[in-house]
Design brief:
The protein is built from two helices and 19 strands. The chain has helices at 107-116, 121-128, and strands spanning 7-10, 19-24, 28-29, 35-43, 46-50, 57-64, 67-70, 81-83, 89-97, 100-104, 136-150, 164-168, 181-187, 190-191, 196-202, 208-214, 220-223, 229-240, 249-262. A hairpin with a 2-residue loop joins strand 4 and strand 5.
């Protein structure tokens, strides 16, 4: 069995993390319709929309059957993505942020974060390196993808060269989803075994349910899905850094996300 359900939690759970995702206005589009999507940061599949701002991202592309098309816009545009695709089928939107840092002022918040994201080992590592419990920095970056259908939505997702990414091996618009969505998690081009995948499911009336899953030894995980729902899958890499780095960070988190919808 491929990393099936571990635990379920209501969206109001106490442990919080700020996910980053591409949020299309519509996941299915008729031919020649504009593809419109927000870039969001938030919790429980709800968050603030951010503008198109090139200094804050390293990559923003649409991947189609015809190749890779950069997303162009003007600084300050909101929604951040508003283009009319020149092709039909499955389109994969990709957004990679620049590096950012945060400073922990509360040890309990760091412990809660690493426990939530399945890195409980990080607290022992941190203390074992003689690092302080407050005033330390974490560097983070985001690697977001979204699956969209223009016309019939035919096609397939694939690796697109991100340092960490989620790849959908099921097309939610054309494939049989009765056995769930098959995903694969990668880090530096290699499958991630035993990686936690957090799945957010949103109903048409906005209710959100969160479930946790784990990849198998080949990086695969099959997550349950239902028709008429939107999904955000999230997988995080946490790695220690030498404090001598230019930004002074002693940890780095790399956040992979994938959004998709299952049509009625």
């Amino acid at each position: 069995m491929l990393g099936w359900l571990i635990v379920m939690a209501p969206a109001s759970g106490a442990l919080k993390a700020h996910e980053f995702w591409i949020d299309p206005l519509a996941f299915q589009l008729p031919v020649d319709a504009p593809l419109v999507a927000d870039i969001r940061v938030g919790q429980d599949f709800s968050g603030a929309a951010y503008a198109y701002y090139p200094p804050q991202f390293r990559r923003f592309d649409l991947i189609t059957s015809q190749g890779t098309q950069p997303v162009l816009g003007r600084p300050g545009d909101r929604p951040a993505l508003n283009v009319t695709p020149s092709t039909t089928g499955l389109i994969v939107a990709v957004h990679v942020t620049d590096d950012m840092t945060l400073t922990y002022k509360d040890w309990a918040k760091f412990k809660a974060f690493v426990t939530h994201k399945d890195f409980a080992w990080a607290t022992d590592d941190h203390l074992g390196r003689g690092l302080p419990e407050t005033g330390f920095k974490e560097r983070y970056s985001r690697y977001a993808k979204s699956l969209l259908a223009v016309g019939n939505g035919a096609g397939h997702d694939r690796e697109v060269g991100l340092v960490t990414e989620l790849v959908a091996l099921t097309n939610p618009f054309t494939d049989d989803i009765r056995n769930g969505m098959l995903l694969r998690v990668f880090y530096k081009g290699a499958p991630r075994a035993a990686a936690q995948v957090e799945l957010f499911e949103k109903t048409e009336d906005g209710k959100v349910q969160i479930t946790f899953h784990r990849t198998d030894e080949t990086g695969h995980v099959r997550v349950p899905v239902q028709r008429g729902r939107r999904y955000l899958a999230d997988a995080v890499v946490m790695r220690p850094l030498d404090a001598a780095t230019s930004d002074g960070a002693v940890w780095e988190s790399l956040w992979a996300s994938l959004t998709f919808a299952v049509p009625n």
